[in-house]
Structure prediction request, 316 residues.
Amino acid sequence: MALFDMARRCGAYIEAAHMNYHKRDTALRDEKIVRAYCERYDIPFHKKDFDETKFTGNFQAAARDARYDFFKEVCEERKLDEVLVAHQKDDLIETYLMQKERKLGVSYYGLRQSNTIKGVKVFRPLLDYTKQDLLTYCKDHQISYGIDESNESDDYTRNKIRHHKIDKMSDQDKNALAAIIDEKNRKKEEHYRKACLALNKEKYTISQFKRIPYLKEYLFVHFDHPSASFIKEMKRQLLESKHACFEGKDICLSREYGQIFLFPKSKAFFYSFQNIESILSIEEVSKVDKSTSNIFSKPLNIPLKLVNFEFQTNFT
Prediction:
């Protein structure tokens, strides 16, 4: 609500997208607060009810997925430029501490001020404000807001970190840690650029691949939420296994014939065979995995949806 009021006072053209999860008794109260603010200032109001039957697994992950699907839908229908979300400094620090506690491999510590989610630009203008700053703003400007009671429990890891670590920090502590996070991200970006400069071709010998600087930072960017142990195992298999393939968000890494190949997912990957024995040695080339409707090659262990096989018959 603080962000909503700030954006309106700035003169920005804004519309509201509110998703009601119906997970607590006060969910309808929060919806009414947003709707009343929109009616007061003649701001378009979009609302969607969370359909739990369409999502499985972790609720927080499913809720986030549904929320950003909704934001994308509104932006496309209304031809809006970006989504403003009210993450603040406490959220940034909580995210960083969660990443460290879970030993996650990440491309960025904490929260980016802007990024793209589901093809929509997301901007976080409040990362320099603490939660207390925003509560004070709402009180000073008489802005109605609701308290999410589920945040008061320790049911979620984020809540535990908030209650037992963040709430015990002074503003000076938060500012100092935020500065440390900024410096860590600066180094991450510098290391990623160096890795990109070294990864300038599609095929590498094993010794060349071993010498690529900051490869870990490169892999953190191109693979979805990998753990540090996952990246370590990926590198081990690429360097030591006879055949290995890993599919990232936008790239694939494959080891075949004693070499490592790096190619975009959208690009076809061709194999050439010089004799009939090489072809005959491939077993079950078109085995279908009925559980996922994917086709896998064996023993190459590469999803065939990523691969086009080119058979060169220059032999009799």
Remarks:
- The radius of gyration is 25 Å.
